Amino acid sequence: MAEAGLPKRIVAAARRMNTLGINQGASGNVSARAGRGFLITPSAMTYEAMGAGDIVKISVAGKAQGVRMPSSEWRIHHDIYAARLDAGAIVHTHSVQATALACLGRPIPAFHYMVAVAGGDSIRCAPYAVFGSQALSDAALKALADRRACLLANHGVIALGADLDAALGLAVEVETLAALYLAALGAGAPKNLSKKQMAEVLVRFERYRAGQSVEGDEP
Prior knowledge:
Elements: H1 6-19, E1 29-34, E2 37-40, E3 56-58, E4 64-65, H2 74-83, E5 89-93, H3 96-103, E6 125-126, H4 134-143, E7 149-152, E8 156-161, H5 164-187, H6 195-209
Helix pairs in contact: 2-4, 3-5
């Protein structure tokens, strides 16, 4: 992702998280890959007060450069970028519905075909670890294996994408799915799709993203 103008786009994405209702106050964080490192929102600063000059650069070695301290969750972002070449941007939110599921330690199963938007037949929930720790980063990476999003137990959500728009859009999808799942649970036990059914959906999703014709032309 080109670094020119990127700090402004990160600030805009962070503010949009709150506007979309998937984050509150100064919680959560946003980053984007820049060269061999990445840029990330600073620690303990409201998005309304944040400017492009407050964005912090983290090197591939994990060294911070900027006028402010990086987000306390910079380690998760650093480790995801190192492990996932498909990650161009990452958002971490405390969206209400998805975080409620995370506080129950519950993943989002294949109750709806759109669960495949995160890359698999479920959206996993990583086990709890204290914020800002290597243990939390390790747990997130494991939950993100072959996935583009996961829940963090008693904490929130991680979503990654090729760019800021993709990562933000996925975070919105996860929150919508969490709300639907909680509503379904309130009415009974949702009937989950089978692995075979979800495998078919995943194939169609890949064709859809590649711009190939898919019957119905709907994700």
